[in-house]
Specification:
The complex is a heterotrimer of chains A (about 325), B (about 250) and C (about 100).
Chain A lengths: L2 H16 L12 H20 L1 H5 L8 H26 L5 H9 L17 H18 L8 H29 L3 H21 L10 H6 L7 H18 L10 E3 L4 E3 L5 H11 L3 H14 L1 H22 L1
Antiparallel strand pairs in A: 1-2
Chain B lengths: L1 H24 L7 H29 L5 H6 L10 H4 L5 H22 L5 H29 L3 H15 L10 H8 L10 H14 L22 H15 L6
Helix pairs in contact in B: 1-2, 1-8, 2-6, 5-6, 5-7, 5-9, 6-7
Chain C lengths: L8 E7 L6 E8 L3 H12 L7 E6 L11 H5 L23
Antiparallel strand pairs in C: 1-2, 1-3
The chains are: A mainly alpha (about 325), B mainly alpha (about 250), C alpha+beta (about 100).
Enzyme class (chain A): oxidoreductase
Keywords (chain A): Oxidoreductase
GO molecular function, one term (chain A): phenylacetyl-CoA 1,2-epoxidase activity
């Protein structure tokens, strides 16, 4: 194809997206569109799967049977969401194994928030409330993103995730209304998860590299800073309601803007964790790689068995 | 009668509790995402059963204890599960073998429990039986895959079956509570399930090219609260919150 | 040892309730058809979304190529006579 033909195709492609038409896997697409989607979608899938670990950590120790089943179901959903997203990404011509390879070798990123440890039960509440809260803000706009398989996966994810945040907030309510010790546990978790949750919405607009292109492709509908503001504005009253204090001395209502002003985010910490030096980066990868390697003989056996079965069937047919 | 029924319920419920806890440990660490989701489903089924039994047990006990108190605040000698279900997830072959050896029993057991004169128990059994039929299907499929898969998987599965075999006989032991409940028409006479159990298990092992262990030496004790060393660690995790933060609501 | 063969991809179709058609729900990996069915049950119907499942290995699906959409689908666009609105009726005929 000549360069001019490609430019022409690209122009038509961008126009389709601008008209809110969906792009489907077999449609022509610019290579950059394919690569950007593979990167973002697989990163999203990795986040779901790595995200199982910090919460999975508490399944065996959940304080009641009711909490245990809710947590199990939630972590299971995350596996499901990882699976939907890997499947959607596979339509772009990359296999799940290749994506795992990228994750395991550190080539692919996942949400940095999961590199923080879950040290008390209240962390289950904080993650559901804050981390899932921030995730929902990120994810809802993706239900109408331009790439069909991604949009469809996100519709399913958002529908299923609606209980996740409630699950977390309910844990926090119970703690906040509990004994002094429980209340302290809740406040401590909020203190530790608040800032990483704000960072989860991405670097500031000035630092963000992909925003403009992503807006055009509807991978993003609002800027990171707008999303962050939205998250803060909706979360602060929820903290107030249950008597917990947001750990930010600079936080105050700005009447003029109709929004909360908030303090400086420690971006050095953010980049340190992104670059692999957070408290749990190594642990998380060890767990994922370990599960994959320990599972290898199992996956091989299942394939070998399937082949034997198919062979036997063929022989019977003859 | 009340006391026997309570003890009897614990015997049933503790099996599902301990096995559910073991399956829950795997969440996020399975050999594939799909398998992970499947194992978690099984764990969720088991905890659902557990809650029905303990809620009923709490009602029978009538001393103000809740399902969680019963599940999480007994001492190690007071758990009445069979030794089989507390065995660790040594590898995926062990996990599936343990499940399979329990599922075959569990399905036979619930099929009889459905006929119980105790309407609550019969109703719980009716609901659980569908779940457990699927568990058995799932674990049997994996016995076949691993038994008749690669040389490595065959060896691992054979090792798991050989090691866990010693815990199968206990499934058919009767406690005093069992006997009392059988005579009331409430409980299941587990001694009568033994032949059907080994027939089913042996058939699937043979289909899976696995040999049936010849060992005649069996372990017992779980039903009387005398466990293997594994239980202490399992309970330490299960009970951690309730022990560390007593008398709180979650 | 390296994995020689990865579990193939399967497409999952679920009937939500009797009376409705099977609809494409997504895909998953499984070693064989039985496992694909079981995985589909656990992945796609755990919220009571289905009463029947079909699975088919993705490689067995033949798909039309969007590059041929012109000759494949556009000729159907101007066949207005296939639709009832093409035909003129006197106003007096209310229902037909």
């Amino acid at each position: 194809m000549s360069e001019e033909q490609i430019r022409n195709l690209e122009k038509q492609f961008e126009e389709r997206i601008a008209r809110d038409e969906k792009i489907e896997p077999k449609d022509w697409m610019p290579e950059k569109y394919r690569q950007t989607h593979i990167r973002q979608m697989s990163q999203h899938a990795h986040s779901e799967v790595v995200g199982m670990l910090p919460e999975g950590n508490w399944i065996t120790r959940a304080p009641s049977l009711r909490r245990k089943v809710a947590l199990l179901a939630k972590v299971q959903d995350e596996a499901g969401h990882g699976l939907y997203l890997y499947s959607a990404t596979e339509t772009l011509g990359i296999t799940r194994e290749e994506m795992y390879e990228q994750l395991h070798t550190g080539k692919a990123k996942y949400s940095s928030i999961f590199n923080y440890p879950t040290v008390t039960w209240a962390d289950m509440g904080a993650i559901g409330w804050l981390v899932d809260g921030a995730a929902i803000i990120n994810q809802v706009p993706l239900c109408s993103t331009s790439f069909g398989p991604y949009a469809r996966a996100m519709v399913r994810v958002c529908k299923e995730e609606s209980f996740h945040q409630r699950q977390g907030y309910e844990i926090m309510i119970k703690l906040a209304n509990g004994t002094l010790e429980q209340k302290e546990m809740a406040q401590d978790a909020l203190n530790r998860w608040w800032w990483p949750s704000l960072m989860m919405l991405g670097p500031t607009d000035a630092e963000s590299v992909h925003t403009e292109q992503s807006m055009k492709w509807k991978l993003k509908r609002k800027s990171n800073d707008e999303l962050r503001q939205q998250f803060i504005d909706q979360t602060v009253p929820q903290a107030d309601l249950i008597g917990l204090t947001i750990p930010d001395p600079d936080l105050k209502w700005n009447e003029e803007r109709g929004s909360y002003d908030f303090g400086e985010i420690d971006w050095d910490e953010f980049w340190q964790v992104v670059k692999g030096h957070g408290p749990m980066n190594k642990e998380r990868m060890k767990a994922r790689v370990g599960a994959w390697e320990r599972g290898e003989w199992v996956r091989d056996a299942a394939m070998a068995h399937a082949e034997k079965k198919a062979e036997r069937k063929e022989k019977e047919a003859v | 009668m009340k006391d026997n029924l309570y003890q009897y319920l614990l015997g049933i419920a503790d099996n599902s509790l301990i096995l559910g806890q073991r399956m829950g440990e795997l969440c996020g660490h399975g050999p594939s995402l799909e398998t992970d989701i499947a194992c978690t489903n099984i764990s969720l089924d088991l905890f659902g059963q557990v809650r029905s039994y303990y809620q009923y047990a709490a009602k029978i006990a009538g001393d103000g204890r809740t399902e969680d108190d019963i599940a999480m605040l007994r001492k190690e000698r007071e758990y009445l599960n069979v030794l089989l279900v507390e065995q660790p997830n040594t590898d995926f072959a062990y996990t599936m073998a343990r499940h399979f050896l329990f599922d075959v029993y569990h399905l036979l057991f619930l099929t009889e429990l459905k006929k119980s004169k105790d309407m609550t128990l019969a109703a719980i059994a009716t609901k659980c039986i569908k779940e457990v039929r699927y568990h058995q299907r799932f674990s049997s499929d994996w016995i076949r895959r691993l038994g008749d898969g690669t040389e490595e998987s065959h060896n691992r599965m054979q090792a798991a079956i050989n090691d866990l075999w010693t815990y199968t006989d206990e499934l058919f032991h009767q406690t005093e509570a069992d006997k009392a409940m059988v005579s009331e028409g409430i409980g299941v006479d587990v001694t009568k399930l033994k032949a059907a159990y080994y027939e089913k298990v042996n058939t699937i092992l043979e289909e899976s090219t696995l040999s049936i262990p010849e060992s005649k030496y069996f372990q017992k004790g779980g039903k009387m609260g005398i466990h293997t060393e594994h239980i202490g660690f399992l309970l330490a995790e299960l009970q951690y919150m309730q022990r560390t933060y007593p008398n709180m609501e979650w | 040892m390296t994995t020689t063969k990865n579990w193939p991809l399967w497409e999952v179709f679920v009937r939500s309730k009797n009376g409705l058609e099977h609809r494409h729900f997504g895909s998953l990996h499984a070693a064989d058809a039985d496992m694909a069915l079981e995985n589909a049950r656990d992945v796609y119907t755990r919220r009571n979304e289905g009463v029947s499942i079909w699975v088919v290995e993705s490689k067995n699906i033949t798909a039309s190529n969007p590059e041929h959409n012109g000759e494949m689908f556009e000729p159907a666009k101007d066949k207005v006579y296939r639709h009832p609105t093409f035909y003129e009726l006197p106003d007096e005929v209310e229902y037909m």
